[in-house]
Each structure stands twice: as C-alpha cells, then as structure tokens.
Amino acid sequence: MFDVSGMSNARRVAISVRELLGETLDATPGVRVGWPDEDAVVFVRSPTAFVAAFREHLAVFRGHWDGSETLVDADINTFRRCVDIRVKQLARERSLAGDRTGAVEEALAASLGRLDAEVRSGGGKTYYWGGNNYFGTELALRRGQTFRADFPEIDCDDWDEHYRLTLARTSWSRLRGNALRFCNHASRVAEACKAKGVGTVLIPSVGLCAHPWIFADAGLRVVATDISSAALDAVAHPERLPGVYGATAQVRWDIHQTAAYGGVANPHRFPQMAAIEKPEVARSLAHRISFARADWTSLPLENGCADVVFATNALPRDDTELVERVLLEWERVLVPSGHVFLAMHNAYDIPNVVAGFLDGRGWRAVASPAGEAGACGGRSYCAYYSSG
C-alpha cells in the first residue's frame, strides 16, 4: 500500500526509492547499485508507469554499450531536496568515440522523453549527458523528511566538538568521502613500504581518515595522532560506522565516485579494503595501530623512530611559522633516510612554503608517493595538492 498522506497533490504517490526501483535494478545483470544510506521517500505519479518507463530507457541506453558495466548511484541531495539517481555506463573506448557523434542522443530521445514525462509529473526532472555516458533522474523528496546534510554549518574552534558535530550532522556520503580521501595514495605507499620492509608509519592529524587500517592491513606498525579524541575514537572503532569505513563502504563510495566522474572509471579507486566494518576483522588488525592524542608540534615518538610520514591535510593553512615547526617535528621523528608523503586539498600558499623549507634543509623532492629507496642517503618528500 503506497503512502499518500500529507501530500499537496493527491495524484502523486509517496514511495521509498528502494521499493520503487529495487526489484528492477537488483535483478538486472551487469548493474551495480549504490542505494542511499538513509531511507528516502520520493514522489511519482504512478509507480507502475514510472518503473515501466525507467526499464525501457535503461534497456535502450545500455544497448549502445554491449558487455560493459552499468553503475547506478542513488544519493540524497539535501540541498535540492531530491534523490538523484544517476546511471553511468562504463563504456568501451570505441563506443565512447561513436557516442560523441550525437547518434546515441538521437536514438535515446523517445525513451528519455517518456521517462521525463513520468518524472516531471511527480515534481522531478531528468538529465542526460551523452559525451559522458550517463543519464539521471531527480525525484522530489516527500516533505517533512530530515537527513544528514552534505555541507552542515559547523563553526567551532574546539576540535573535539567539531568532530562530534561532524559525525552527528554530516551525511554518510560526505563522511565516507572524508574517510576514504587519499586512500589510493595510502595503498601505493603501503605496498611500497611492505616491499621495502619498512617498519613504522606515522599518520599525523589523522582526522576521520581510514589510512591507519590500510597500513595495518599491509602488515605495518602505525602511529596515528590527532588533537581530537573524538576523531581518534571514531577511526579506532570502524565497526561503529559500517556505512563509513570498510569494504562495504568502499564499494558504495566507488559507485558514487565513478558515476560522478565523466571518465570511464573512478580516478581515485584503490584495491579492496579489509572489511574493517566487521568487529572480528578490526580486532585482527588493531594490534598494529597506536592511536594517540597529540598536538601538531609535539608527537609521541622518539627521535628517528618512524620510517614514513603519511600526512593528509595535516598542516595549518594560515601560519607559515607553524607549518615550519610541524615540518621540523616530522624531520625529528624520521629516520635519516625517511620519506614524507604530503597531500593537501585547496592548499593555496602551502606548496611554496613546504618546498622552500624542505629543499633548504637538504630534503629531496621525488615524484612517487612511495618515495625512492634511500633517496641518496637523505630524507625525501612527495607533495600532492588537489583542488577538492
């Protein structure tokens, strides 16, 4: 029985997105689906007519890329008050070239028009981008539903309170994105460390990142620090947040990221993460990780005891003197041939500060995140800066 209560337009039916499309998508071979972490009720005029139109358009759309995988990302957009269902085709290269001629848009026009009519009757809209192999539908959310926000307003100088509010208010998609950011680099560094027999990795200002578990899964000893005990507690217990950490969260994140990008695959993809959302898996790796509350410039390590520093968004952004003090602390705890991998997003003036300071102290800049063995007997660093 469909819920029609509380609607301003009785011709529209309220139904959960999983109930609406679950049977169609879960049973379609070659389709991987990422469902919202939170239950979302959307409006359509007729579930039966919508599903028929969606099935027809999906079949026509997929028919132009035989044998390739289809990803469906259903995510809640709290700003637009809709569920955005994006269907992305992982097309073969030769098919991509043909698609850009416009022939596919013409072939899809009729079925997309029928789907668009059903979507708009429920207050939503459709979109299509042939050059990037995806189409989408935005289905209006029923009024009165509350969800975690993608970009909640959190203005707080206390880091413990900041992370408590972040964990309470931020959407699962955003938390997952924060936890898995730069994990592709962590995987590369972890494999290189394992191959070289490296023993200890320091992760300063770990925040909510899953990086300690990637290094632990590679058999390495890890020291993860942060000024916030709330952040450390969240990362130390991934089983409490299975929608954010672990293999299941990684699959959901990969579907979302791949569907969002115009290329054929998620450029930030990394090898399968251990299923740390399962308590027994987390326990089997936890003995390799030490979590410690520590300030940027006062790390709980002896001189020269870390082989690698893996630092992501771990430098202050508006204090050059403090940046240099943090870099000196990393230098203190590193072995003489140690390596720093530094990643920052929206870094602004930091690249010049880092390069100028480390180069002036005889560090060697290298291109590989994993560093270069020995780096001529001295310390080396690799800096990666992104815009998001």
Describe this structure in a few short sentences.
It contains 13 helices and 14 strands. It is an alpha/beta fold.
Structural class: alpha/beta
State the total count of DSSP E strands. Answer: 14
User: From the 3D coordinates, which CATH architecture of the largest domain would you assign?
Assistant: 3-Layer(aba) Sandwich
Order of helices and strands: EHEEHEEHHEEHHHEHEHHHEEHEHEE
Q: What kind of oligomer do you see?
A: single chain
Keywords:
Rossmann fold; single chain; seven-stranded parallel sheet; Heat Shock Protein 90; 388 residues; 2 domains; 13 helices; disordered N terminus; alpha/beta; 14 strands
What does the model show?
The chain is built from 13 helices and 14 strands. With 388 residues, the chain is of the alpha/beta class. It folds into 2 domains: 128 residues, Heat Shock Protein 90 (2-Layer Sandwich); 228 residues, 3-Layer(aba) Sandwich (Rossmann fold), CATH 3.40.50.150. Helix 12 crosses helix 13. The longest helix has 19 residues. The chain is elongated. 41% of the residues are buried.
What layout of secondary structure does this protein have?
Blueprint: E1 13-16, H1 17-26, E2 31-34, E3 41-44, H2 47-62, E4 70-77, E5 82-89, H3 93-99, H4 103-121, E6 125-129, E7 134-140, H5 159-169, H6 172-180, H7 183-196, E8 200-203, H8 211-217, E9 221-226, H9 229-236, H10 247-260, H11 279-286, E10 289-293, E11 306-312, H12 320-333, E12 334-345, H13 350-360, E13 364-365, E14 380-386
Helix pairs in contact: 2-4, 12-13
